[in-house]
Protein 1
Amino acid sequence: MSGPQAPDSVSAATARLDIGGRRGCSATLVAPQWLLTAAGCFTEIPGGTLPQGAPKLKTTATVAGTAQQVVNLVPHTDRDVVPAQLAKPVTGVTAIPVASAAPAAGDEVQAAGFGRTHTEWVPDQVHTAAFTVQSTATTTVDLAGRSESAAICKGDTGGPVLTTAGGRTAVVGVSSLSWQGGCLGTDASETRTGAVAARVDDLAAWIGQVVYAPVLAAAPWKHTVQMTAGYCTGPAGGSRRMDVIVVRDDGEVTLYQGGDGADPARPFSAEHRLQPAKSVWTHAVNVTGVNTGGTTDGVVVRWDDGEMTLYTTVDAKGFHGEKQLAAPKNTTWRDDARLLTGGRFATGAHRDDLLVDWKDGHVSLFRDLAVNGLKKQTQVVAKNTTWTYATQLATGSFTGKNADDLLVRWIDGETTVYPGMTAKLPAEIKIRPAKSYWANAGALTAGALTGDTTADDILVRWKDGHVSYFTGVDAKGLHTEIQLAPAN
């Protein structure tokens, strides 16, 4: 980089990449265990396809004087950008965030990197140069040096292009191509210093999901006993996907925040601890999402002493608007209720109806919890021996009906959908047969976890601890399965 030495904060977060001893690039620390750099640094030919996974050539990243290996690459499909995972987190260095807005023509940006200068072949310092944004395209930003000496040189590829506003520095692009005029080793006849950077501002949500995916996979999923989905950190209809609330056997409650990016392999972007281990939530028997008219969803909880509680909203800070639906030591809800799920089981209503399966096999529906509490009960299925074998209930929108669909997982693994569930049980659709692998489903929920707003995805925690979900479930059954966490 033909320019002055970079500020300390930029120097500390800019990494030098040694790729198989064949080439050098630069990168930016954007999370404790993740760098952001150019995909072209790792391909054999310019513009070649880069597969996800460990780099083909051994790659060493040096950040703030400490070297370690790059173990995983997750390239973006439409531009010269790749998040690169380090073997372990970097400590003592503040990562630089990804910008959330694109630069405009005329804006000044700073490019940084470990590349050559006018006089040094392999500098040991990060240098910067000032550029002016010429234009912004869908995936790229064209840059022009603000001085005759400003240039992006060999070794700077993958380094950050930075904006600063209000004292906050952020990565708006990744150095991709340049003419390298004036750089050591460039033909003296080449005087052009313009450059092209790959945009990353519009990838901020996707990068967040990529960074979070290994954290999600490492969570103690085998200890999950309850799951329910809902819009807690963002309203329905926005870019945010549904969140999932997880209750573990030690009473810990975690909210997994739905992502804003549309990558189906990475549906979550962060987690929020709502309750610590050894909390009162060790006594939660059933948890299900509802919406009583607020901009975000809430939950209904059945406790082991028979108390029924409605929390009208849930967000990243916890549970709010607590309302008691049934008092403690209520023998009906303590001893007779088995399973329950919230949903919109009437057209044109809020998603605040509660369907309950009782121990004698009868199934009943409680309408409009916010208004009626548990006073308005309608029997959907009479006492029988079949529904005593129901093992899990969930609510989704699989068939396009005006009311929600009811998903039932039976004890033998058979899994059925009742489309457009109302006060009358509709004809079932079998999506998994008896004696299927679904007998191993330890906990499940349904929601809008992919790039649309339809709650047609099913998330399952299996008995061996691995977690997967099925996207776009419909009347024809299950389709694509995506694994989110391994057995543990």
Protein 2
Amino acid sequence: MDRAGLPQVPWSGPRSGRDGVRAFFATLHEYLQPEEFTVTHIVVDGEQGVILGHLRDTVKASGKPLTTPFAAHLTVVDGQVARYHLFEDTHALHRAVTES
């Protein structure tokens, strides 16, 4: 079952399955306009992988920028992403979606 995260950040929170992934990206793109997504490092160890980089988006409702480094931890099984966990600067995200 999908659960929402913060009300101001409706794309946050845990998701599962293909429908959860679709809902995540659909909701994310309702609220943010992607500007830059840069991968600086990829580390792989068997089924585990970590992607490091930074991103810049614009909050559609306010026009405010969101700039944050990120790390993503993935588990890939039989060529399919079985787990994806994104880590980002949640303070910067909160400021971008809530402050005037």
